[in-house]
Amino acid sequence: MKNYQGIMTIISKRELVKDVYEMVLEGEGASFIQAAGQFINIKINDALQPYLRRPMSICDYDKNHIKIIFKVVGEGTKILSQKQINDQLDCLIGLGNGFIDLDCQKAVVIGGGLGVPPMYKLAKDLIQKGIEVTAVLGFNSQKDVFYKEEFEEICSTYIATMDGTMGTKGTVIDVLKEKQMEFDKYYTCGPEKMLDALVLSYPDNGYLSFEARMGCGFGACMGCSCQVKTKPYKRICVEGPVLHSSEVIVNG
Q1: What is the strand order of the sheet 185-189 is part of?
Q2: Is the pTM of the predicted complex or chain greater than 0.70?
Q3: Which of 73, 112, 137, 159 has the highest CB neighbour number within 10 Å of its CB?
Q4: 3-state class of 126 per DSSP?
């Protein structure tokens, strides 16, 4: 897939829940995104700021706009959260391989925490193909829940919280089992422990988007390499971030 490097302009920003922000970027680079699950790499630096770009999953996009959702967890994301409308960002766009196998009749999209955003565009794409879609979203607590209403507008949506303050108490897998959910394929993004648990429970019919620390974002530095069953390693930024459940090696 062809990549793009250029300027995107911030046209909207809002805080969804504490320290979690939604930001919409505008520019021609949006047209280089080909599939839900791809990501962008944002340059956040001057003489006093972090050097490395920050990889961001994409919540939604069209030919001129990219919507991202991120959480302030360090200096780089704090700086990004302080950007204002009309500020410009240097972005690498169209990175990674997204969710491309959308051939099924019933699908469940599963997001955990900051793995929720890319599931939104994917759900829309699946629905557009006439596929029956259910969303299962997992969070630590009710105060962490975001995009519940947005998902409910497009598909059946279930929430899991670890402390039981909203929806099912427990994990996304608890929801799948409690609702006796039937599906042909599942698509997911979230913490590695959640992805490992899904592979153990559903080893044959899933596509999992992995998060990893990245240096370059386009495969040169090898910093995001991981072992898989099908070859010695794959680079999350190039051959990923989406891997099939049959090739995932469960840690621990």
Answers
A1: 168-169, 156-161, 132-139, 106-112, 185-189, 206-209, 242-244
A2: yes
A3: 137
A4: helix
What three-state secondary structure class fits 147?
Answer: coil
What span, in angstroms and rounded, lies between the C-alpha atoms of 157 and 135? 5
> Per residue in 73-83, pLDDT tens?
988 899 999 99
Query: Residues 99-153: pLDDT tens digits?
Result: 999 999 999 999 999 999 999 999 999 999 999 999 999 999 999 999 999 999 9
Q: Is 83 exposed, middle or buried (0-12, 13-18, 19+ CB in 10 A)?
A: middle
**111-148: buried (b, 16+ CB within 10 Å) or exposed (e) per residue?**
bbbbbbbbbbbbbbbbeeeebbbbbbbbbeeeebbbbb
Q: What are the E-state strand segments in 18-153?
A: 20-26, 39-43, 54-61, 65-71, 88-95, 106-112, 132-139
Q: Which of 173, 176, 212 is nearest to 196 (CA)?
A: 173
User: Do 208 and 185 touch, CB atoms closer than 8 A?
Assistant: no
For residues 80 and 62, give the distance between their C-alpha atoms in angstroms, rounded to a whole number. Answer: 22
Tens of pLDDT, residues 235-248: 665 655 888 888 77
- Bridging pattern class, strands 185-189 and 106-112: parallel
